[in-house]
Each structure stands twice: as structure tokens, then as C-alpha cells.
Amino acid sequence: MTSLSASLVRGALSSPFKRAGRPDATLPTGHLTRPAAPVAPGPLAAYARICGFAESGPLPLTYPHVLAFPLTMRLMTGRAFPLPVLGLVHTWIEITPHRAVQPTEPLELAVYADGLTPHRRGTEVTMATEARVGGELVWESRSGYLSRHGTTDAAAAPRTASAPDAAVELPAVAEWALPGDLGRRYGAVSGDRNPIHLHPLTARLFGFPRAIAHGMWTVARCLAEVGDPAGIRSVRAEFRAPVLLPATVTYAADAAGNAFALRGAEGRVHLVGTVTRNGRR
Questions:
Q1: Under 8 Å between Cβ of 17 and 79
Q2: pLDDT at 84
Q3: CA-CA distance, 131 to 101, in Å (whole number)?
Q4: 87 to each of 102, 122, 131, 175, how far by Cα in Å?
Q5: Angle formed by the axes of helices 41-51 and 215-226, to 10°?
Q6: What mean pLDDT is predicted for residues 101-110?
Q7: Cis peptide before 118 (omega within 30 of 0)
């Protein structure tokens, strides 16, 4: 059994004993790390294909997140982590590539928990990931994950949005038909087999009528359309509404590719994002 599979099993067993929303909740301290290791070409190629990236050149901007996901899961399923991992929903991600990373470069990975925040629908945890080559920080990210539960704090709100409010007005660029098994296919490639993505039955256990697409697949697919990552200083994406599978969605973006969105039926906005490029504010 792989370490990720073991974490998923541990998370399933420990989740019923964790109660989100405890006022005295604290996060584990310290980092979980993986020593420098080369990127396996087969899994990388499979990831590139399902997300629409080129199968040659630098690593996709989102791929270090996938490589570090087993570490993230190990931390979030540990005894010291206060939130139940089953049903956690990815709400936003910020990615900062400090330089292009080639697949031949061995990556050192580290993850840590960076804070708990009240949310109008529960509690949100911020997880940070760092990738280094020979000690040099080459890539980092921060992500929000929401544990949904009842709250009496009406003032609690999600992280302030930085993506464009005019997402519904961005011009359509492409339309994608997403199959019902997309969650299972992406889960097999990424290792993220959260039940909300796999089958309608398991998704219903967490309040979703059908399986939903992975947030990281939606942002990766959009960034594949943005094109050449050279010159990108940062990316921020916010997951506004789940994509229920199967679905037909529209990718929209401005002419420069600095603002993008994923829209569904009747213009419902699923994802909004911004790209900041070097030399631009």
C-alpha cells in the first residue's frame, strides 16, 4: 500500500472522531518533507494528457502540488490535525513559480499547515507547499480547504476574493464536455481520491447530488489554455461553485490571458482566476 493510500485509509478511519469548529482547535507545527527525487516521466505524461498540457518542456505550473499531495494528505490525516479530511473542499490556490522547473531536476518538497480561518460555511485551513532544487526555492503555493459545518458566526466569510468580479463578462474561448468519470480518471493520475469526486453515491454522503470535478483539475485545465508559463509571476484561482459531473463548461479569458473563468450552464461561474506576469502589476 502506498503512503498516499495509507493516508486515505487513515483519514477515513479518523474523520468520525474529529469535530470541526472547535474553538480550541490548533494546527500541527513543523514541516513534512520529501528528499530530492526525480519526476517519474510516465505519471507526468498521464497528468499532462488529462489536463491538456504539453508533454514536453518545463513542469506544468500545477504539478508540484500533485507531487506534494501525499505529504499534504499525511499531515491532514494525522492525529494532530483538527479537521476531518473526508469531505474537505478545495476553495482557492495561489501559485508562485520562481523559475521554470525541468522534469529532470530532482525536487525537494515540503508542506505545512499555515492557519485556521472561520468561514461562513465552516472552517478553512490554509496549507502551504514549497519545492526546492538543490536548496533553491523554485516554486511555492498556498491553498485553502473548507471543512463544512454549522456555524453561528454570521460575520465569518471566505478569504477576500482577488479574482475579477466580471467573470461572467469574459469572452468565451472554448467549450469542454466533461465525462461522468472525470473524477475517477483524474484521481488515478493525481492520487486525490476524495469520495466527493468518485461516484454519485459517495458524493451524496457529503451533500453533493453527483460527483464533482477536482478543483485542481479545473485550474490546471484552464492554465493549460493560458499557454506558455514563461514570465508568469503568480497565479490565483478561486473555486466558486462545484462542477457536477458530467457537465459542459465554457472556458473564458481576456485577450492577454491575465483573467480567466470557467462557466457552466446559464453562466454559472465555477472558477475565476488571475495571472500576474513579470514586469506587470
A1: no
A2: 86
A3: 10
A4: 34, 12, 27, 29
A5: 80
A6: 96
A7: no
- Share above pLDDT 90 across residues of the chain, in percent, rounded to a whole number: 62
Q: Would you call 185 helix, strand, or coil by DSSP?
A: helix
Q: Which of 136, 146, 131, 163 is nearest to 60 (CA)?
A: 131
State how beta strands 89-97 and 232-239 pair: antiparallel
Choose among 78, 154, 79: nearest CA to 118: 154
Residue position matching grid coordinates 525537494:
108
> Residue 157: pLDDT above 60?
no
Question: Is residue 189 within 8 Å of 62, Cβ to Cβ?
Answer: no
Cβ 191 vs Cβ 69: under 8 Å? yes
pLDDT tens track for 36-89: 999 999 999 999 999 999 988 999 999 999 999 999 999 999 988 988 887 788
Cα gap 120→91, rounded to integer Å = 13
Which three cell numbers, joined as nine digits, stand for 64? 508540484
Query: What is the rounded average pLDDT of the residues 115-132?
Result: 90
Per-residue model confidence (pLDDT) at position 261: 97
Could you tell me the three cell numbers for 244?
Answer: 457536477
Distance from CA of residue 276 to its chain's centroid? 19
Cβ of 200: how many Cβ atoms within 10 Å?
A: 13
